[in-house]
Amino acid sequence: MSASIYRTASPTAQPWICSLILFLVHSLTYHGCQSMPVRWLFGRSYGFVSPLQRPASLRQTSLNGAIAGIQPSGELHIGNYIGCIHPAVQYQNEKGDLIFMVADLHATTGNNQSVIYVLFTGRQENGRLNDMTKKTVATLLACGIDPTRTSVILQSEFPSILELHWILGTVISLGRLRKLANFERREVARDSDNMAADVLGSGCDTVIAGPDQECHVNLIREVAEKLNRQISEDLLRIPKLYVNSGFRVLSLDGAGKMSKSNVNDSRRVNLLDSSDAIAEKLRSAKTSTSRDASSPEVENLFRLYSFFSSEPLPDVANDTENFQFSILKDKLHRSMTSHLGGIQRRYEDLVKNEDTLRQALSAGKTRMLPVFESIVERVKHRSHYYKT
Fold first, then answer.
1. Residue among 91, 90, 80 nearest 206 (CA)
2. Bridge partners of residue 20, in order along the sequence
3. Residue 254: pLDDT above 60?
4. In whole angstroms, what is the distance from residue 256 CA to residue 253 CA?
5. Which positions carry the signal peptide feature in this UniProt record (predicted)?
6. In contact, 31 and 51? CB cutoff 8 Å
7. What residues are paired with 68 via a beta bridge?
8. How much is the pTM?
9. Where does the pLDDT of residue 109 fall: very low under 50, low under 70, confident under 90, or very high at 90 and above?
10. Are residues 305 and 369 in the same domain?
11. How confident is the model at residue 330 (pLDDT cuts 50, 70, 90)?
């Protein structure tokens, strides 16, 4: 009785079934899911395009790796170093496959001069952008970024980023931007989608940045997911924030994070500050009137000393001597100048040899320009931009 179940289909129906299967396989392989029978079966929104249908120039895959970036908008300080540069060096040494972008276009955001003006005239504040870009690249190499293992690139030398910036601008809503914590304080409307273009255009799946950038990375993830849905293909990688030991370094007056944009230079320790300058700044650093390790200003000093001395943070906090803040600041000064001394010596050698800096940027551009261009061309292709 049970055997009759397997004989219910007519023998003459089997060739039809085989023919249908072969026809669907042929359609998927040579015509993609945009062919009429496949769209009829699965719906028009199923937008898979066969690799054989896609132009050969668009078949390059994205990279597995990480991207970090920094603006040449001012002197790099220990907050930049702890939150971004040092974790990037660690990633480079452990995993490799790193891109470090000097975001010179971002550096013009918020200035009176427009990005277009800077690009076409090459002038910003009497050449300050040029000088700061040179100093930033030299500082990165002095901190341990190795151009033979890391692609060091200039944002302005990648025109495809601006194309992707425009496309992503149609995906990011103003309402979503307003949910960012620092939307009102900074011109994030012009900043966040450009950051998204930097990350998504690179094809990297990891972003190295400080913990305060988590909201931006979450926004980039949303943008990538939304655009992937629109083009019906998982083309853009969904990036994640690199988990590292970096922390949010506070200004020495305890008012917010340490920043290059703070007009008061005494509220930050720059990587190239002299020993005397560091000592003076630390002496004026705000502390607590009580021995309260949970005070933000005190915790900031504890964390800084732990980082530069390599002493575990619990040991620093449990050492009663460190609550004599003059002693703590003196110990922090010694450990900080010892750590930064090597960086400063390497910087002095590098900044005198501009050919080394240009070679590093040229090598990074040669490696990464085809990757950025390929990804943006794929986005344009799937977005049905007309191509001549």
1. 91
2. none
3. yes
4. 8
5. 1-35
6. no
7. 100, 208
8. 0.79
9. low
10. no
11. very high
